[in-house]
TrEMBL record:
This is Diguanylate cyclase. One of its GO terms (biological process) is phosphorelay signal transduction system. Residues 1-35 are annotated as: Disordered. It holds the Pfam family GGDEF. Residues 1-11 have a biased composition (Gly residues).
Amino acid sequence: MWAVGRGGGAENAGKEGTAVGLKRKRTGKSGQPPTVLLVEPRAEDLERTRALLGEAGFRVVPLTRFDAAVPLFEVIRPDAVLLAAQPPDYGALQVARRLRQVSRGTVPMMYLVDSHDRDAWRFCVEKGQCVDVVARTVDGPELSMKLHAQMKLKQAVERVAAGEEAGTALALHDPVTGLYNRPFLLALIGLEARRTERYGGSFSVVAAEVSGWSAVRKEHGRAMAERLLVYSAVVLGQTVREADAVARVGDSEFAMLLPGTPAESVPEVLARVEARFEAARFQMEGRVVRTALELGAVSFPDTVGAPTQLLSAALQTLRRTREIRRAAGPARLLSI
């Protein structure tokens, strides 16, 4: 399961970041300020981001060379990694791939991208292996909130899996799709709500339903319908960010917890998921077909309540959207 790595510091870690970090209450797994490995070839941007993280209480290990990132990562085992991504070579993406292999996906990462470079932003979203993307010009509180959201979620998954939150370990996964199940997602939503109430920020819950699933089950049987669910789960897993949690919460319904995602960022997420499903294809008895998702979302603290209430609100939004679309035409699986 997810865990947040923890290692000793490196001698080239910024003294200012360390000194400020020791004054803060937030700490990493060992009780020390959380360590961030920052890889930024631009000296001016490196110093700016380093200063922002230091002021937010992080211990920063700065680098300007991508080829040094993996060896240093293995020495210090940071709590999070920030990688500047830019054309033409996008070296950050290759480094991210290697770091995910080394850490087995246990350390959250984010790409830093120029906010005005929409091509670079799109490239990182489409090719970046679900690593989150933030603007180089992001302010300190927002960057800190995003990093803590990712770290806290991964720690929470490990704690709940070990039974620290519930007294006994939960059965985490849906047996059909391999995604998280509804009880575990609700536990994660509760943890994220408590974290947000304490530290500030926002998160969102997105509900998704596979269009035409009931018709597939009726016409082709349960086995084929379950294949469609597995296919949909894979596509969802390839679309969301590394920090997000995806679960199956009903027969044909999924839900996603998006830490650090305010309401104004949700439309971009929904558009990305819809576009990914529009481009995907599914084999069914010799036919190539494509399906779609009905989507709905709520954001905290715009919507408040217990985890079950937040999930129900997202599902209600989905159903309202579905009814509107059905009024325009029946949901169906489209043949190609």
